[in-house]
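Problem 12. The chain below contains 112 residues. Write out its predicted structure in token notation.
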Amino acid sequence: MKTLIDQLSNYADYHRDPRNIVTHYIGVPMIMLAVVILLARLQWGALAGVPLSLALLGAVAAAVYYCVLDMRYGLFMTALLAAMLALATPIAAQPTTLWLAWGVGLFAVGLL
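Solution.
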């Protein structure tokens, strides 16, 4: 597996355009939140009051990956993913139209 330094060096080589940088600071987090919202709807119970969902499973897998890559970065990403889950879970419980509007809407705007 590449180290965090390798990953960031590769990223820096291809992302020097200011528009691309803005896209990654605004658009990518919006897309991530949209995916978490959409996946949070797929639930199969709860453990200690925490809904078990595909979003939680993906967040745990991503958090483990980031922690293996770099512990400090991993802890930051774990906190960010936890915040996204906290936002996404109540949205996923809304009626289908509202849930899809948030999920698909954020995804579409994040692509712009």
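Discussion. Residues 41 and 93 are 7 Å apart (CA to CA). Students who got a different answer should revisit the alignment rule from Section 12.3.
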